[in-house]
Hints:
single chain, mainly alpha
Amino acid sequence: MRKKMKIITRSFSLAIGQRIALIRKEHQYTRREMSVKLGIHQDNYYKNEIGYSIPGMDTLYRLHTDFDISLDWLFFGSEPMHNKEKQPIIMPEKQTSGLENQSPHVREMLDAMEQDPLLLHEMMLNYFKYKQNKEILKPASHIPDNPQDTTGPAQ
């Protein structure tokens, strides 16, 4: 299990590194120039680009704001690369969603995620990791509480 997660994490960081290299080449920067633009040490930038490590939050923020890079593209390869190319999402008029009954902490978190795309992506990554682990741990078949019960899970 641990080896499988290492392989997934390694391929994820390699893909991010390849996309960071594309950004650098698009702007015709050397690795040194790119590290200066991102405000990180040249060695750290090199490790990010070759997929040895994943960029930190400050680097992700700079890629997003200074280079107009879509974090969806950076993390998952989903098009488009730049935010300005994305079609605006037309939100329907606000409807009551039942969230007004949530605790102030939940409302505050939702508002923060709405304002900060990096927080939203961090929460989504954690959720997908949680969901993936939950799927791995899910039992293969239903075992009835009563051995005579073959109708499936209780309602």
